[in-house]
Amino acid sequence: MSAAAPSARPRVQVGLALPVLAGIGMLLLRLRILDTSGATRIALLVAVLAAILVASLLVPVAPGVDRVRPWIVTAVGLAGVAVAALVARPIASPLGTWALPLAVFAAVAEEALFRRAAYGWLERFGPAAAVLGSALLFAAVHLPLYGVAALPVDLGAGLLFSWQRWASGTWTVPAGTHAAANVLAVLLR
Question: How far apart are the first and last CA of the chain?
């Protein structure tokens, strides 16, 4: 008897998708959290972002391949952020003095979720699926918060961050670019 040949199709590991789905669900709670007031709002946002970050960092992912020097990938990302700042309109923030630190924390948590956990899970289907899939998830999760008008910017940002993940081999490069974009958005409000 001969052993069955391994299948050429990638094996879907549903267990690795659960933290991604849970993180997306927690991000969708932002609208409810933003309806709360004062210190409760801030505490809930910090707790949700911390849970997303920790869960995303615990997901086992294969090490990335450094295709382009990270400083070049970062420079391209920051140039993209600068161009987006010229064409996108600022969005008001109900977070007051907490807007800046929460914007940076949100960027890092979201990139851990989308460019580490989701990208890592989708990568088994090929780099195009990982880039496009994590970008689409990123854009979709921002729809309830920013609306359809922001969809082109959110999808463009998601594609930029996903390309950065592919090119640099790490989720930390797009996290830095995302943090810079959020800081710029807060400062331009």
Answer: 70
User: Is 128 buried (19+), middle (13-18) or exposed (0-12) by CB count in 10 A?
Assistant: exposed
Contact criterion met (CB below 8 Å) for 67 and 167: yes
Q: What is the distance between the alpha carbons of residues 58 and 15, in angstroms, rounded to a whole number?
A: 12
Cβ-based burial of 3 (10 A; exposed 0-12, middle 13-18, buried ≥19): exposed
**pLDDT tens digits for range 81-140:** 888 877 766 665 666 678 889 999 999 999 999 999 999 999 999 999 999 999 999 999
Cα–Cα–Cα angle for 188, 157, 25, rounded to 5 degrees: 100
| 3-state class (DSSP) for residue 93 | coil
Which has the closest alpha carbon to 118: 184, 183, 27? 27
What Cα–Cα distance (Å) separates residue 84 from each residue in 106, 163, 185? Answer: 19, 16, 10
Instruction: Record the pTM.
Output: 0.86
Q: Cα–Cα distance between 113 and 137 in angstroms, integer? A: 10
Rounded CA separation 99/89 (Å): 17
Report which of 48, 170, 40 is spatially closest to residue 94, judged by C-alpha positions. Answer: 40
